[in-house]
């Protein structure tokens, strides 16, 4: 009986192909919108997580002063010293590495090529903290770190722009007023989510930076990597307690430093993206309800148009449930076709949109299946009333209908 009802539904749809297509347009748009919103949202979430992880795994950044929003200044606060870094490394448990970091924007010169880049004074732990590696050459030797020798490790972008295909190892570049020998090249990390090129950098020993660039022994910030599997919250609290003690912050006073947990920032950004995805998906789902109302209206018109046909079927012995099933199946077939077309449209559109936005394609087949089931359910819910009306027609009155 179901199969016969399905065949009759296909014939009815083919008789009014254009009207049937316009009827399911709301379902098509609803299903496509839900899948596109969820797919793009999940891609954005994956992109945010990936960009944060590029900065380093389980990364904590400790800076002097209290930052009050983007651009907040902390220059009036007491800077860190190298002894603070040593204290964190020796007294805080479950740390993978801790590195002093001092930064400055400089122009580096090789031959007749100039390039503005970021100069970082640090130690070898910095490479571990940032989850980096030296692709060519080597890290700094202990003697170079202690003596403040003019050696450097360059990023992939600096290598490309200054040396091209030439081997940079052993060559000297000019930084400010001194020449610096290139002893290593970092592996490429790419851009962050905010468009910052992480490979556009030059790293020199911290002592070299202090002697030849800053002229003091200050440390701009401390970067810490927590061991995998260890919550960063505990390490963040322990570091705060240690820094308050070392910087003699009274119990009633606020911290004069900031500990930023990149894992928490990533979780916050991912959570925000997920909320927006759910909200937009819910709004898009309203289109499915609008499409269902359209199906109900067209089915009511169809019942009116086919009143004599229904009367004939009832007069020759068809039961109410047969007529009910016929129109119900027709509504479900209509909405299901809309769901299938919507899925095909969504997959094509999603691939194009994520490519345009530069986010990964994260397709959740559970959402695809759920959208299809929901579209079929819309056919059952909104097709029931017209089908019930058709099934309860009086055969004699139906045959008299003009």
From TrEMBL:
Entry-linked InterPro entries: ABC3_permease_C (IPR003838), MacB_PCD (IPR025857), Macrolide_Exporter_MacB (IPR050250)
GO cellular component, one term: plasma membrane
Keywords of the record: Cell membrane, Membrane, Transmembrane, Transmembrane helix
Domain MacB-like periplasmic core: 20-241
Sequence ranges assigned to domain ABC3 transporter permease C-terminal in this UniProt record: 282-395
Cell location: Cell membrane
GO molecular function: transmembrane transporter activity
Pfam families: FtsX, MacB_PCD
Transmembrane segments: 21-40, 279-303, 323-347, 367-385
Membrane topology term: Multi-pass membrane protein
Family per record: Belongs to the ABC-4 integral membrane protein family.
PANTHER family named among the record's database cross-references: ABC TRANSPORTER PERMEASE YTRF (PTHR30572:SF4), MEMBRANE COMPONENT OF TRANSPORTER-RELATED (PTHR30572)
Name the UniProt record assigns to this protein: MacB-like periplasmic core domain-containing protein
């Amino acid at each position: 009986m179901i199969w016969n009802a399905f065949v009759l539904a296909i014939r009815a749809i083919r008789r009014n192909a254009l009207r049937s297509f316009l009827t399911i347009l709301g379902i098509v748009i609803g299903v496509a919108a839900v899948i596109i919103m969820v797919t793009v949202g999940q891609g954005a979430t994956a992109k945010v997580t990936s960009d944060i992880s590029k900065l380093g795994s389980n990364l904590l950044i400790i800076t002097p002063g209290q930052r009050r929003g983007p651009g907040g200044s902390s220059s009036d606060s007491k800077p860190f010293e190298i002894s603070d870094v040593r204290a964190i490394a020796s007294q805080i448990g479950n740390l993978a590495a801790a590195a002093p970091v001092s930064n400055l924007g400089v122009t580096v010169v090789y031959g007749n090529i100039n390039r503005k880049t970021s100069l970082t004074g640090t130690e070898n732990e910095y490479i571990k903290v940032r989850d980096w590696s030296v692709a060519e050459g080597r890290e700094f030797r202990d003697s170079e770190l202690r003596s403040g020798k003019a050696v450097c490790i360059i990023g992939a972008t600096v290598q490309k722009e200054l040396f091209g295909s030439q081997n940079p190892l052993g060559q000297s570049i000019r930084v400010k007023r001194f020449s610096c020998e290139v002893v290593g090249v970092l592996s490429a990390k790419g851009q962050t989510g905010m468009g910052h090129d992480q490979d556009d950098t030059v790293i020199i020993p911290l002592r070299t930076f202090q002697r030849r660039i800053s002229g003091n022994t200050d440390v701009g910030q401390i970067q810490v990597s927590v061991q995998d599997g260890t919550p960063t919250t505990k390490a963040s609290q322990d570091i705060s307690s240690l820094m308050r003690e070392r910087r003699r912050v009274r119990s009633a006073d606020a911290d004069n430093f900031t500990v930023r947990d990149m894992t928490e920032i990533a979780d916050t950004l991912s959570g925000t993206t997920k909320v927006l995805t759910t909200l937009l998906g819910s709004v898009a789902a309203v289109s499915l309800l609008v499409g269902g109302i359209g199906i109900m209206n067209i089915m009511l018109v169809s019942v009116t148009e086919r009143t004599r046909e229904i009367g004939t079927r009832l007069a020759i012995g068809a039961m109410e449930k047969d007529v009910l099933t016929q129109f119900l199946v027709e509504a479900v077939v209509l909405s299901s076709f809309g769901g299938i077309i919507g899925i095909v449209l969504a997959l094509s559109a999603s691939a194009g949109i994520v490519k345009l936005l530069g986010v990964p394609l994260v397709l959740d087949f559970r959402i695809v299946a759920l959208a299809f089931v929901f579209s079929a359910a819309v056919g059952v819910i909104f097709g029931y009333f017209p089908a019930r009306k058709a099934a309860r027609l009086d055969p004699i009155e139906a045959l008299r209908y003009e």
